[in-house]
Design brief:
It is built from six helices and 17 strands. With 303 residues, it is an alpha+beta fold.
Length: 303
């Protein structure tokens, strides 16, 4: 494990511990620090605290970084569905079941392993997430933009932060949504009841999802979801929050749901400005076969 970090709070560091540590310890991301706080790797005056704890002058903060699991990141000859590629960016249509980048429990056979075999990638996101500007869940399919170099990565990441890019998903949810469209504005954070889950929590991060009904079935609704923010599991948690969890979702859905290998969620549309030319690029990917086949089945049942 890395050596523990110890610091004493002065007048420039008062306020929420997660925000202040993220500001003063730029080598760590805020989400990483929040996770360490929640998991007890960060203590104040020898005691475990929550991310919303407010530091005061004189507090003694101790940070014990997690022991990283050793992962040997190797290029792997795994087929890729490349929608677009040039010298700066790759747009790939990720299949359901593929993890985006190596992590504990998934050391290989990831999208990053496949991309490294195919092309050089940017280095900004570190050793295990080269080229990865944004992610989608393992069991979510669809479009991802990948940076081949650091210039492209900085541009694409800035567009995500400024919310100027386009990201639209198609989801099949339980129940019949009466409204034709709506907006879910509810903050998201780690669930206090289950650490593997995200939840709507009062002190969570700002999260906004816009949805529109595409088709209603007898017991399900097909919706498009446009992300204004990109929080972990955002669509899955937001749709559950309004009483319409995703069909097939093993983490947030009901026990009785549609068969499959995970949630029926597909990143259908992706748009961004090219980092070198500034030209607006927009890409779409059709629903994967398993998703379309389930919709066809629901059509027949409803007849």
């Amino acid at each position: 494990m890395e050596e523990p970090l110890e610091l004493t709070v002065d007048a420039t560091m008062t306020g929420r511990i997660d925000k202040q540590l993220a500001h003063h310890l730029s080598q760590f991301s805020r989400s990483q620090l929040q996770r360490w706080i929640e998991d007890g790797h960060v203590k104040v005056n020898g005691e475990q605290v929550k991310p919303k704890y407010k530091l005061v002058v004189g507090d003694r903060v101790t940070i014990e970084p997690e022991q990283p699991q050793k992962i040997d990141l190797e290029p792997e000859n795994i087929p890729l569905d490349i929608v677009y590629e040039d010298d700066d960016v790759i747009v790939v249509n990720k299949p359901q079941g593929m993890v985006v980048h190596p992590a504990p429990g998934h050391p290989d056979h990831t999208l990053v392993n496949a991309l490294l075999y195919h092309s050089p990638l940017s280095t900004i996101n570190g050793e295990f997430r080269p080229g990865i500007v944004h992610r989608i869940d393992k069991d979510t399919s669809g479009l991802l933009m990948v940076a081949k170099n650091d210039m492209a990565h900085r541009s694409l990441a800035a567009q995500l932060k400024a919310k100027t890019n386009e990201r639209e998903y198609v989801a099949l949810v339980h129940g019949v949504i009466k409204e034709d469209a709506g907006t879910i504005d509810a903050p998201l954070g780690r669930s206090p009841k289950d650490r593997k889950k995200q939840a709507v929590v009062a002190d969570g991060r700002h999260a906004v999802t816009h949805f529109k009904v595409l088709k209603r079935y007898r017991h399900y609704t097909l919706v498009s979801c446009r992300l204004e923010t990109g929080r972990t599991h955002q669509i899955r948690v937001h749709m559950k929050y309004i009483g319409h969890p995703l069909a097939g979702d093993p983490l947030y859905g009901p026990r009785k749901t549609l068969p499959g290998k995970g949630q029926y969620l597909h990143a259908r549309l992706l748009g961004f400005k090219h980092p070198r030319t500034g030209k607006q690029l927009t890409f779409t990917a059709p629903l994967p076969a398993y998703f379309q086949q389930m919709l066809d089945k629901l059509d027949k049942i409803d007849q």
